[in-house]
Amino acid sequence: MHATLLGVLGLALLGALHAQDDVPVQSDFQQDQLMGRWYSIGLASNSNWFKEKKHLMKMCTTVISATADGNLEVTSTYPKGDQCEQKNSLYTKTEQPGRFSYSSPRWGSKHDIRVVETNYDEYALVATQIAKSTGSSTMVLLYSRTKELSPERLERFMQFSKEQGLTDDEILILPQTDKCMVDAA
Description:
This protein is of the alpha+beta class and 185 residues long. It has 4 helices and 9 strands, in the order H-H-E-H-E-E-E-E-E-E-E-H-E. Strand 7 (123-132) and strand 8 (135-144) form a beta hairpin.
């Protein structure tokens, strides 16, 4: 029984990792053009965390800057209750331009992050495969340089999220807010 369960879990993880291999990365990725402020417009995920918190989520700002060694410092500022919270993450570059890794010591998770498509001055679509000891999950983020995006970009985000196996109830266009928008650099 124990060996069967481990075998099933191993196959599930292998399937999730293989699925991520099919996720494209922006061709001719220009990291320097990704720098600056972005607004999180859409978020899709099949994680338990997302399912529990999605009714509380609102648009947030994310500032991306390069470190001296070419990695990305990603700082997100978002409303949490009546305060503004900030989360800093270091995305480590990989040999493939547009693909990064991140490890969360707090949650014991490893993240395979891919900039799927962007035109740098309007939107960016980012896919992340998250692996933890308790299983794996998928997350898709839609970033915009402004607080609003065209219906075509929103539709592309929803279509891509579904291509990653996410369902309608796992896809969220984040409600706009002015809270915590001014404080972001």
